[in-house]
Design a protein that fits this description.
The protein is of the alpha/beta class. α4 (116-126) packs parallel to α5 and α10 (369-377) packs parallel to α11 (404-411). Among the domains are: 1-69, no CATH class; 386-502, Rossmann fold, CATH 3.40.50. The protein starts with a strand and ends with a helix. The chain contains 15 helices and 23 strands. The strands form 4 sheets. The chain has a 17-stranded mixed beta sheet. Strands 1-2 form a two-stranded antiparallel ribbon.
């Protein structure tokens, strides 16, 4: 390896080798900085590879420098199970990552090699004398044939473990015993359990005070943990930034005790910025009544609709978040069996900040669609929205009724909307509702509206309805501009053509 001697100010035009010197001229501290950059900012930053091992094969000096500072360089030895587990003595100080194998996802399952030996090797690694050095475990789609072996291998402490991901293959849930990880995870920063039943989860969570990400996905009935138990576990999670709770079945077991009046004081999650919940609204209400997250800016809620649907705690939880009041863009998506609304910032740099509320009512409970709509349009931050888009989901078939009343009720909360975009599937619904407006109602619905965008090519049959609405707005002193998305891929102002054309 060579570096430019000019950069070091050592140029000598009389020297035939001027301009080049070996990298050995660099002092150890500079080498360490270079190694740190390579390990953490290059290919070596991928925890599922061992690219950093290239450094130790260059020369004895590099090998000594790397192994002298394994923690400083954030070295990790990735093990995928493709070969029997064995660690040379030279790597005895490097933390171990038990990771997924590098199989190309596009290979059809029938062409994949038998992975039985891979899982057996991973079990051996978990059960080896080196288990105290394992810092990350990522085991996805664990086959039924190795579930019990992995459970048995992980019923002891893993003191260095910081990141854990477990998921099982098939419909059967992984039942985790209370002795899992020795019942303690003091250094865990990330915990993800998918399709896992963990009745004694509270014991582990109470010890995991360093958690930054907690993700419990596809929770089966056997993995139910009450809102009260979760809140108790949250009491020490001052670093928790991301929380995901997703139940597999619509109806979670609701403990009647969780429906009692909320406590006078709430448990504060001071670092929480992202929260995802999918499940029963009663469970959500029991949870939100007891927690507070002052820095939250990304909230995604998915409810399975049922009767007697009321979510006052959700409204209170949302209304107290200052970030949600700054969301000026909304997208309402209405389908046959679901309706959801996404609020976001109008600033491109804040694309990751959002409030997402989705209601699923299914074929049997389709009559609950009006309840779902009432719930969504009651969100407190809707009164601050300035840009609104209404569209159907992908692969949607238009089955919605065309009565004007439901659509007027949907639009009334948007008192600050200046720009309304309507997909062509809903032009007839919205235009029919606008045509029915009369007198003061013309300005009571969407009073701040300045631009109406009709997207698609089927607005012509509803020219009369749109024309009537625009004329009434102009007569009331609230002028409105209508835009049409033409086939050339651009918005065209059609207000004059609409009012004075044929």
């Amino acid at each position: 390896m060579f570096i430019s001697q000019c950069a070091l100010g050592l140029t000598d035009q009389l020297d035939p080798n001027a301009g080049k010197v070996t990298i050995d001229i660099l002092p150890d501290d500079v080498l360490v900085k270079i190694f740190h950059f390579y390990v953490n900012d290059n290919d070596g930053s991928n925890p599922w590879t061992n690219e950093w091992l290239r450094l130790v094969h260059v020369c004895r000096r590099w090998r000594y420098t790397v192994f002298a500072l394994p923690r400083h360089l954030h070295l990790q030895l990735a093990y995928t199970g493709n070969i029997p587990f064995k660690i040379p003595d030279t790597l005895s100080v490097v933390p171990v990552v038990i990771s997924k194998s590098h199989l190309h996802l596009y290979i059809p399952p029938r062409l994949l090699p038998d992975q039985g030996h891979v899982w057996s090797n991973k079990v051996a690694a978990l059960d080896s004398k080196h288990h105290t050095r394992i810092c990350q475990i990522h085991l996805s789609n664990i086959p039924d044939s190795h579930v019990e072996a992995i459970k048995a291998a992980m019923q002891k402490p893993f003191p260095a473990l910081t990141d854990l991901f477990l998921s099982v293959n098939g419909d059967r849930a992984l039942c985790i015993p209370a002795s899992f990880l020795g019942g303690s995870g003091p250094h865990l920063r990330t915990l993800t359990l998918k399709k896992c039943s963990y009745p004694a989860a509270q014991k582990l969570l109470l010890s995991a005070n360093h958690l930054v990400t907690l993700s419990l996905k596809d929770i089966p009935d056997s993995g139910y943990i009450s809102p009260d138990a979760l809140v108790t576990a949250f009491s020490g999670m001052f670093r928790l930034e991301t929380l995901q709770l997703e139940f597999r079945y619509p109806q979670s077991h609701i403990d009647p005790e969780s429906l009692r009046p909320p406590p006078l004081t709430r448990t504060i999650l001071p670092a929480l910025t992202r929260f995802t919940f999918e499940g029963n609204h009663e469970y959500s209400e029991g949870l939100m009544a007891q927690i507070d997250a002052p820095l939250l800016y990304d909230l995604r809620i998915v409810f399975f609709m049922g009767r007697d649907f009321e979510v006052p705690q959700l409204y209170q939880f949302v209304s107290h978040r200052e970030a949600f009041n700054t969301f000026h863009r909304a997208e309402m998506i209405i389908g046959d069996f679901q309706i959801f609304c996404r609020l976001s910032s109008a600033k491109p740099i804040d694309y990751h900040k959002q409030l997402w509320l989705e209601m699923r009512f299914g074929r049997v409970n389709r009559q609950l669609s009006s309840v779902a709509q009432d719930c969504i349009v009651s969100l407190p931050p809707l009164s601050n929205v300035k840009q609104l888009k209404i569209r159907p989901p992908l692969n949607w078939r238009d089955k919605l009724e065309s009565e004007s009343t439901p659509w007027l009720e949907r639009l009334k909360p948007f008192t600050a909307v200046e720009n309304l975009t309507v997909s062509y599937q809903f032009v007839r619904h919205v235009s029919h509702a606008m045509e029915m407006l009369d007198g003061e109602e013309v300005t009571e619905v969407l009073p701040a509206l300045r631009n109406l965008f009709l997207r698609g090519c089927t607005w012509e049959p509803y020219r009369k309805a749109v024309k009537t609405f625009v004329a009434a707005r102009q007569f009331s002193g609230y002028p409105l501009t209508v835009h049409y998305w033409d086939r050339n891929g651009g918005w065209e102002n059609i207000t004059d053509n609409l009012m004075f054309g044929g």
